[in-house]
């Protein structure tokens, strides 16, 4: 197709901003046909924006792109697909209720002549062909629902191949795969390269990136932090390029209460495929950060402690008492509060008012005899909550939470739990999807909470947030506790390396 | 009235003119009541009897069994379930209760305890079937539609079968006077049925809007996941709704049996869609999380007025169905329109 | 919300006041209204019944308030109460349940409105109403007796089958008893080998008769407790090669009950030997007369019997005009 010397895809000086905030500053990178480019960077570094531009979802304000030597400026995803650019997303876009062959042809069923009938024989034949291409040994008539995650991904790749894709972009392809599946995926990627297909590989798992790609491009805060052949880079260098800046002052200082009593502990927590022999403890007045990639089991760990997910073995102790077979109710009674990562789906009743949400987890405290609710008390405590949280509204009785901003919604969730004066507050991604100002307020609230003696287990994808708030950081990888980092300043690279599953067990004492 | 969820009644910015008042009335949660009035006004020239005391006392009486079942159904709909078994509960409770107290061959025939025990047994039948429904839904995680469809068929059949052991005819008659008094007697002018169902309605209203159990029901219906995370016992709450529905249906069975002085295995057989229709017309959502007892009262009132006017007209059966269908559709359309206007304001 | 409630009350009262201002009855004045409440129109018998009542009432200048309860006793009770509320002058009812109708009778008694049960009597009670009922036992006995004579004349011994109705229905029991009385008079000629319960259900009847014909292929005498089962009987007999007119040596001596148009057609064509006829015209006459008498304060018996008659191959020409089924049949087959 194209000569090996000139890059197949060239991105030059692309810039993009949203609402006046520039998220992509003159980013350039290139990938040759038959080669793979690794694209790495922290959350918010500009990876997804770049990919959205490549896929035609959004258009850049400046810069140019060339595909196969021709100018490339897709106006929508359809044009991108027509130009031979295919995406393999983390969340696969397959219809589970359809068969493999139907998924491959769902938007382009071949017809039998002029009749509006599907030519099943033609589909069967070409499906078998592409399935052999990606080394997937299933019948074309198999339902996608019956396939494993790895097999589904291969179906997705087969779909790209059947559309004659010339550039395939993998976005976090290994997060939900088992190790053998990962190996198989890498073999397929190798084969795709041999067919002259260009690959862009995006992942947090840096060792995977190193093993798959020839060239690595690092993004940081929307800037190009550097591009180099993989042989010229060490893992540590890549991490340094990714992080490259000091912790901002948005993390408020907190009066150390020092080492309080050990108030909460987990030992030997195990659940096949999710957690393996996880043990840790938290002291009164301490924030323990939990670092890990998506799929490392960090949220699942929180859900197990709170009694939302089952576990097979392990002991949870709070305030010196064991918490056996926890349910949300017994966990709450023991003094645990839980802010879930899914605020809309699990944290709040979106159609209900602020005050209704505020008292939902503590109805008993506002109920009198026979469980009859004291409406005046509800209004009062909700107003108290609103002012303590500096909520944007004080019309707590008639504002539905769906009308609040993300930050204010999160404050309602936190306020709802603070009413219970938790012994341990588990915060799963407390600042996801909220703006910087609101983030800072959430940090302030968390600090206030610990100063009053609560313990906090903080889960976050943002390493900076963890480092800025935590007294101690634990790293979790594939369900295993792979590191514990005690001292400030934290060794950012060591934490990231541990979380990325590099196996650099560096328990700094 | 800050019951959950808040009906966002337009509270501001409406001029105090007559038109404004009218608009406000149409947009309020009393909308169905307004429809009732409009309907009565429209039908009046054809059946002037609709405005007589006799007819209204009939309407009130006819409302009671429907209303008490509809109250139970309201609980179930708010937890995002549906209870199709209510009519079978009515039939089963009616015949089992009748078999206890009937004067001809009843288990406790003639005994002074016959009536109270029969009433207790009827309640037990209702709560028991409600328990079977709730257990299957909560433990086996089955959809309430299919569970209650199955129990409906089972107990509708069982009720007919049950009668064959207790009566040579198709129903169990000869119920004691003290029991049928429940439907004919009154206390200082208010019929017992109205008194009992009215009390149930008030208790249900307070329970739903004022107690924490009521909050649980709304929360579980709106979002069971969020409810669980908030420490609400989701399973127990669903179970509670189905138990309430079963108990309410058995009260309806008492009213029917007392009124007919007969335990009939087909008692209430045809009221299922009337009940669900009335609750939904009132404004309770089929998708859970939204509903009020007062809405259900209005919905039932509307349906019964409709029915009564048709009976007074002496319209033929098919005409009744056609008219009823169109009026309900019209009411639903106006309600949708009203909600859209409310949303835009 | 408090404001709202007040608004509502004000609006409602205004509306009611406006309405009562126009209380000038629009309805036609002077005429009397009779409520006609049927259980359902499940067979031609009931369709014909309600038609004959309707026509008769119209002829006499009554207004009619009609309702069908569709097998719902509570609905029927509410229909009776609605009729009372409309102050009708009489109620003709076919009750859904003989027990559950009693409270309705009491309500009518209290309102002093005469109530007449058409074709089905209520369960015994202290409430007062008049029931019109065919003398089922006598009618079926007469019809079956004719058929037994035919059987005797054939000189052969016959094996007999009877299709029995719902045993919860007194009419069904009386028809069965009438049949039994008749055949008991001819022990040398008739041997009853099959008593087929139908529960008034056509499918049950068909299955039962088919089974009986397989178990006793020599059945040659058949009585059905209702003519509405004729299509199923015809089908079952045809399958067993037993559907032949009088005179054929394989003819099954067939006795019907009710006097449906179908029954007349079969008698005309010679497939049916005799049929017990309920005299619908007479029953209607009895019902309306009872209401008129009651309105005038005359004493009327609680049970008025329609003696009915048996129509047979012998008397068909002289009696057919009294057979409601023939009248309907004639309308459909003019000339």
Mean pLDDT metric of chain C: 88
Q: Biggest interface: chains and residue counts?
A: B-C, 57 and 49 residues
Strand order of the largest sheet of chain C: 2-1-3-4-5-11
**Largest sheet, strands/sense/barrel of chain A:** 6 strands, mixed
Spatial strand order of the main sheet of chain A: 6-9-10-3-11-12
Biggest sheet of chain C, open or closed, and with what strands and sense?
6 strands, parallel
CATH class wording of the largest domain in chain C: Alpha Beta
How would you portray this structure in words?
The complex is a heterotrimer of chains A (509), B (345) and C (335). Chain A contains 17 helices and 22 strands. By secondary structure, chain A is an alpha/beta fold. Chain A folds into three domains: 9-243, Rossmann fold (3-Layer(aba) Sandwich), CATH 3.40.50; 250-335 and 423-509, Rossmann fold (3-Layer(aba) Sandwich); 343-421, no CATH class. In chain B, α3 packs parallel to α8 (192-210), α8 packs across α9 and α9 crosses α11 (234-260). The radius of gyration of chain B is 21 Å and the shape is globular. In chain B, β1 and β2 (190-191) form a beta hairpin. Chain B has a two-stranded antiparallel sheet. Chain B has helices spanning 18-27, 31-43, 53-78, 86-101, 114-139, 144-166, 177-184, 192-210, 212-222, 224-229, 234-260, 272-282, 293-313, 317-344, and strands at residues 186-187, 190-191. Chain B has 345 residues and is mainly α. Chain C has 335 residues and is α/β, with parallel strands linked by helices. Chain C contains twelve helices and twelve strands. In chain C, the strands form two sheets. A six-stranded parallel sheet of chain C has the order 2-1-3-4-5-11, sandwiched between helices. In chain C, α8 links the parallel β8 (219-224) and β9 (253-258). Chain C starts with a helix and ends with a helix.
């Amino acid at each position: 197709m194209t000569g090996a010397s000139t890059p197949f895809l060239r991105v030059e000086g692309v810039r993009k901003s949203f609402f006046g905030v520039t998220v992509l500053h003159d980013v350039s990178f290139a990938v040759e046909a038959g080669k793979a480019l690794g694209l790495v960077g922290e959350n918010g570094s500009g990876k997804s924006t770049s990919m959205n531009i490549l896929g035609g979802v959004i258009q850049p304000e400046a810069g140019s792109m060339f595909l196969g030597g021709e100018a490339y400026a897709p106006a929508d995803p359809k044009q991108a697909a027509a130009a031979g650019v295919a995406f393999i997303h983390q969340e696969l876009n397959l219809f589970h209720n359809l068969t493999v062959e139907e998924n491959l042809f769902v938007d382009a069923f071949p017809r039998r002549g002029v009749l509006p009938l599907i030519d099943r024989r033609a589909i069967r034949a070409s499906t078998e062909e592409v399935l052999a291409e990606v080394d997937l040994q299933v019948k074309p008539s198999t339902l996608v629902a019956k396939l494993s995650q790895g097999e589904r991904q291969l179906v997705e790749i087969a779909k790209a191949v059947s559309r004659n894709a010339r550039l395939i972009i993998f976005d976090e392809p290994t997060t939900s795969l088992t190790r053998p599946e990962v190996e198989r995926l890498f073999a397929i990627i190798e084969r795709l390269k041999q067919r002259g297909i260009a690959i862009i590989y995006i992942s947090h798992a840096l060792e995977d990136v190193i093993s798959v790609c020839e060239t690595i491009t690092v993004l940081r805060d929307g800037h190009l932090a550097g591009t180099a052949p993989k042989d010229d880079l060490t893992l540590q260098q890549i991490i340094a390029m990714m992080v490259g800046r000091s912790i901002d002052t948005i993390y408020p200082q907190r009066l150390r209460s020092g080492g309080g009593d050990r108030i909460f502990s987990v030992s030997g927590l195990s659940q096949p495929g999710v957690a393996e022999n996880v043990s840790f403890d938290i002291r009164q007045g301490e924030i323990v950060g939990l670092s890990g990639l998506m799929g490392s089991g960090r949220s699942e760990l929180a859900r197990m402690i709170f009694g939302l997910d089952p576990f097979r073995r392990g002991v949870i102790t709070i305030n010196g008492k064991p918490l056996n077979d926890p349910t949300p109710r017994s966990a709450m009674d023991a003094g645990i509060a839980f802010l879930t990562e899914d605020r809309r789906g699990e944290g709040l009743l979106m159609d209900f008012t602020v005050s209704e949400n505020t008292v939902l987890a503590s109805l008993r405290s506002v109920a009198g005899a026979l469980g009859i609710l004291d409406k005046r008390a509800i209004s009062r405590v909700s107003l108290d909550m609103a002012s303590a949280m500096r909520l944007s509204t004080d019309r707590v009785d008639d504002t539905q939470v769906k009308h609040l901003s993300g930050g204010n919604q999160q404050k309602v969730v936190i306020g709802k739990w603070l009413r219970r004066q938790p012994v341990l507050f588990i915060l799963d991604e407390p600042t996801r999807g909220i703006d910087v100002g609101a983030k800072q307020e959430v940090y302030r609230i968390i600090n206030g909470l610990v100063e009053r003696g609560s313990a906090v287990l903080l889960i976050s994808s943002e390493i900076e947030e963890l480092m800025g708030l935590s007294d101690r950081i634990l790293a979790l990888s594939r369900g295993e506790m792979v590191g514990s980092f005690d001292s400030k300043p934290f060794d950012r690279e060591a934490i990231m390396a541990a979380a990325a599953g590099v196996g650099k067990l560096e328990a700094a004492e | 009235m800050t019951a959950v969820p808040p009906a966002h009644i337009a509270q501001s910015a409406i001029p105090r003119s007559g038109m404004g008042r009218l608009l406000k009335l149409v947009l309020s949660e009393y909308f169905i009541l307004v429809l009732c009035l409009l309907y009565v006004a429209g039908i009046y020239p054809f059946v002037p009897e609709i405005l007589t005391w006799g007819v209204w006392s009939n309407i009130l009486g006819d409302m009671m069994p429907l209303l008490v079942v509809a109250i139970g159904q309201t609980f179930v709909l708010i937890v995002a379930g549906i209870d199709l078994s209510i009519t079978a509960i009515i039939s089963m409770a009616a015949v089992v209760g009748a078999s206890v107290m009937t004067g001809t061959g009843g288990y406790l025939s003639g005994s002074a305890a016959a009536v109270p025990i029969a009433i207790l047994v009827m309640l037990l039948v209702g709560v028991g079937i409600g328990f079977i429904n709730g257990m299957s839904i909560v433990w086996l995680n089955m959809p309430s539609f299919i569970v209650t469809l199955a129990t409906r068929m089972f107990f509708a059949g069982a009720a007919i079968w049950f009668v064959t052991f207790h009566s040579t005819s198709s129903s169990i008659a000869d119920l004691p006077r003290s029991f049928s008094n429940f439907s004919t007697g009154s206390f200082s002018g208010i019929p017992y049925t109205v008194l009992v169902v009215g009390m149930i309605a008030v208790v249900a209203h307070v329970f739903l809007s004022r107690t924490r159990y009521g909050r649980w029901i709304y929360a579980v219906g709106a979002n069971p996941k969020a409810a669980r995370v908030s420490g609400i016992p989701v399973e127990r709450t669903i179970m509670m709704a189905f138990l309430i529905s079963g108990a309410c249906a058995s009260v309806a069975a008492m009213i029917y049996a007392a009124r007919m002085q007969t335990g009939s295995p087909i008692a209430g057989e045809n009221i299922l869609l009337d009940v669900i229709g009335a609750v939904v017309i009132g404004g309770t959502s089929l998708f859970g999380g939204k509903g009020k007892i007062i809405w259900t009262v209005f919905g039932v009132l509307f349906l019964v007025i409709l029915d009564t006017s048709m009976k007074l007209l002496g319209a033929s059966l098919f005409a009744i169905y056609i008219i009823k269908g169109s009026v309900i559709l019209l009411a639903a359309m106006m309600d949708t329109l009203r909600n859209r206007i409310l949303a835009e304001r | 919300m408090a404001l709202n409630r007040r608004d509502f009350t004000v609006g409602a009262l205004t509306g009611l006041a406006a309405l009562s201002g126009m209380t000038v009855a629009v309805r036609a004045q002077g005429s009397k209204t009779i409520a006609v409440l049927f259980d359902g129109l499940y067979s031609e018998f009931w369709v014909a019944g309600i038609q004959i009542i309707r026509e008769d009432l119209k002829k006499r200048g009554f207004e009619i308030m009609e309702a069908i309860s569709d097998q719902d006793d509570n609905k029927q009770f509410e229909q009776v109460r609605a009729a009372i509320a409309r102050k009708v002058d009489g109620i003709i009812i076919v009750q859904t349940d003989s027990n559950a109708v009693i409270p309705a009778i009491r309500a009518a008694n209290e309102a002093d409105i005469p109530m007449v049960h058409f074709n089905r009597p209520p369960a015994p009670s202290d409430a007062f109403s008049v029931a019109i009922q065919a003398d089922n036992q006598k009618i079926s006995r007469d019809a079956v007796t004719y058929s037994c004579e035919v059987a005797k004349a054939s000189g052969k011994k016959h094996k007999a089958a009877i299709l029995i109705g719902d045993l919860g229905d007194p009419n069904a029991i009386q028809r069965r008893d009438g049949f039994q009385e008749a055949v008991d008079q001819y022990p040398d000629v008739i041997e009853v080998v099959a008593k087929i319960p139908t529960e008034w259900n056509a499918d049950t009847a068909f299955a039962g008769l088919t089974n009986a014909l397989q178990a006793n292929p020599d059945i040659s005498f058949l009585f059905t407790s209702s003519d509405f089962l004729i299509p199923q009987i015809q089908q079952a007999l045809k399958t067993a090669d037993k559907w032949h007119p009088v005179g054929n040596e394989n003819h099954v001596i067939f006795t019907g009950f009710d006097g449906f148009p179908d029954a007349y057609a079969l008698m005309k064509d010679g497939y049916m030997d005799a049929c017990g006829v309920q005299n619908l015209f007479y029953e209607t006459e009895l019902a309306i007369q009872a209401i008129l008498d009651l309105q005038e304060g005359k004493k009327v018996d609680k049970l008025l019997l329609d003696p009915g008659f048996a129509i047979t191959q012998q008397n068909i020409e002289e009696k057919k005009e009294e057979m409601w089924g023939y009248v309907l049949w004639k309308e459909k087959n003019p000339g």
